[in-house]
Amino acid sequence: MFANVIVDISHEKLDRTFQYRVPETFSEKVKPGVVVEIPFGKGNRLIKGYVVEVTSRAEFDEKKMKEIHSVSTDGIGVESRLIALASWIREYYGSTMIQALKTVLPVREKERRKEQKKLCLKVSREEGEKAREFFGQKNQKARLRLMEALLETEELSWEIATKKLNLSPALIRTMEEKGLVKVESSTVYRNPIRLHGVQQEKKELNKEQRQVVEGILRCWKEDAKPCLLHGVTGSGKTEVYMELIEAVLAEGKQAIVLIPEIALTYQTVLRFYRRFGERISILNSRLSKGERFDQYERARTEQVDVIIGPRSALFAPFPNLGLIIMDEEHEPSYKSESVPRYHTREVAEKRASLEGARVVFGSATPSVEAYRKAERGEYHLFAMKKRVKDQPLPSVEIVDLKEELKEGNRSVLSRRLREEMALCLAARHQMMLFLNRRGYAGFLSCRSCGTVLKCPHCDVSLSVHSNGKLVCHYCGYEEPKKERCPKCGSPFLREFGIGTQQVERIVQKEFPGARVLRMDLDTTREKDGHEKILEAFAHHEADILIGTQMIVKGHDFPDVTLVGVLAADLSLHAADYRAAERTFQLLTQAAGRAGRGDVPGRVVIQTYDPDHYSIQASKDQDYQMFYQREILYRRISVYPPEGAMLAIHASGTDEGYLSVAMDYLKKFISRFEDKTGIGIIGPADETIAKISDHYRKVLYVKHEDEKVLTMIKEKVEQYMEINEGFRAVHIQFDRNE
Ligand code: ADP
Ligand code: ZN
Ligand code: ZN
């Protein structure tokens, strides 16, 4: 057995591992994360290192390999536990150990820390006064100034001493040598939260919230199972989280709060700040690298005990982690789209179990996976069925767009929605119009020959932008808008589909007096763009907010009484077994924006598919109905969570070569078919078969047991490693997607 060891946990150095032989006597103890002492360099000096991998493959001549000297038995630090977590991530999701380590260990900043130096007295006051007298008699003015200042303030910053008191570093050093003065330095970490003079505040929990808090605290005493909080929109889940965090902090432990990046707004930070003040910090993509690293350091050194952020905050190196909260647990952004393609819910559970921490998942529309686990008793389930002040849930109406068309209404706004909009504006309330798609104008197609204008590098249609250009949203390719069909020359090019910009134009035309804000990729591109729009809307600077997915997340606008969903079923047509689930979640969350204040909310959902269960269930905001239908479908088709799936994504620049490689891979995997009973689907083109001139194919392997798929994944990894033919093919694994 051999162990790969890193001796320095900084991102640049993670690539450099050293291999050592594991002596028989240690073979039980040496695991990823364990701290070992190893002979290092020419002099075989003993240094400490972390084991990151244990393997049976020697990287170089065994005879020349040194042995691990000893295994450390000191308390295991958070670094060790994070390395153990990385090892699990590598094994489960498929990646190299380095990729996994880089995911869990924060990037160390090369830039020098800001040091703050200060001076203080090293002797008693009495002796200090004697010294002052002495310097006074001797007329040593600079020394006298320093002693006087220190007797007055006890602590003096380096800046004040050198600039204001005009003392030279040489003089300070002399005083230090005389044993009169002490110079201390401490590192100053950047704090991204600039809130001062904000009043602390704690809300009195209502009955439902109190019952949930008490119930969860009781469960924590019994076992380590995660808790799932299913609370309707506006039921006050955040207050519950804060109460639980307080309980954990009281035990001297720390907490991580995961929320989707888009919900990490000023308002959210303010809520946590009101409760916990300077003990909180945030992580988000707007922080600079240095600021990010400082937040990890503040966590490691316990300068803060609550970190709030999107999925990467899960790896905050708290030495004594007590609780992980994952709000909006169903959100797709919790899945990493780069290798290792981990799911935050699964890794949160794993980290908690490695560190003895608690986990609480929360959502108004729990993922089918999480709810199924609660049903099986793997999670404790808690429910909040009422809104905080007992406001009614909004009433939802469904409009069949096929009927509208039959009656001659070709507008994106149905007659019912228009009526409600007029009422809402007349009452001076606010509304949100939600377009269930990416927020751009549609594509161009030729009415004569049917050709759709596509990106030359990707297998996607080009989008029409208001600046008159055709743009590819996958690779950024642009070309001027065409007057004629490139294939048949016909001038009859027509725009299909509708985007937020067009909706805005139509709404402006129908309601000329209304003030409209639009939130989509275009208007939120600039720094803090999305936050600015939300703030403006919160301050009632507009009556109507039009937007995509972005506007449905976790915002609390008490004046919104109407939500219009313009094309509810667009997300149903995605080639994805989660399409119905996503649609239900989006519609329910969107509807949940209405009626949070004192006036009851109304929702109008426009669709071509009014009978679909995901749309019917969101009409009644009936999670149970949706879940029962959905789990049945997953069971019949053996989709997660009723079966496990491993996707093998492959890409390459040569389509024929890629095809052959995938066929070989399939043949290889088929060898395990009889023994294990796995099912193989594909290879097939991905939904988007080409991006930036790279062809893309996918192969799915299904089985009830996840462990079988882990085994298959490992076999495939080994197979590709020894097969030269796979060098030109890029492979990524994905679990349950
Ligand atoms: P959810 O996350 O469940 O949608 P929130 O936690 O955002 O709900 O709470 C909705 C609103 O109700 C927030 O404005 C919050 O400040 C307020 N709120 C929550 N709990 C209470 C309470 N016990 N008393 C008064 N207001 C509350
Ligand atoms: Zn044509
Ligand atoms: Zn492209």
Automatic annotation (TrEMBL):
Binding-site positions, Zn(2+) 1: C446, C449, C485, C488
Cofactor: Zn(2+)
Every Helicase ATP-binding domain range: 218-384
Gene Ontology biological process: DNA recombination; DNA replication initiation; DNA replication, synthesis of primer; double-strand break repair
Enzyme Commission (EC) number: 5.6.2.4
InterPro entries given in the database record: DEAD/DEAH_box_helicase_dom (IPR011545), Helicase_ATP-bd (IPR014001), Helicase_C-like (IPR001650), P-loop_NTPase (IPR027417), PriA (IPR005259), PriA_3primeBD (IPR041222), PriA_3primeBD_sf (IPR042115), PriA_C (IPR041236)
A GO term for molecular function: DNA binding
Pfam family, one: PriA_C
Binding, Zn(2+) 2: C455, C458, C472, C475
Metal-binding listed as a keyword: yes
Reaction(s) catalysed (UniProt annotation): ATP + H2O = ADP + phosphate + H(+); Couples ATP hydrolysis with the unwinding of duplex DNA by translocating in the 3'-5' direction
Record text on cofactor binding: Binds 2 zinc ions per subunit.
Cellular component, GO annotation: primosome complex
Sorted UniProt keywords: ATP-binding, DNA replication, DNA-binding, Helicase, Hydrolase, Isomerase, Metal-binding, Nucleotide-binding, Primosome, Zinc
Keyword match DNA-binding: yes
Superkingdom of origin organism: Bacteria
Family recorded in the similarity comment: Belongs to the helicase family. PriA subfamily.
Assembly information from the UniProt record: Component of the replication restart primosome.
HAMAP family: PriA
NCBIfam families: priA
The protein's role, per its UniProt record: Initiates the restart of stalled replication forks, which reloads the replicative helicase on sites other than the origin of replication. Recognizes and binds to abandoned replication forks and remodels them to uncover a helicase loading site. Promotes assembly of the primosome at these replication forks.
Name listed for the protein in its UniProt record: Replication restart protein PriA
Organism: Candidatus Limivivens merdigallinarum
Name of the gene encoding the protein in the UniProt record: priA
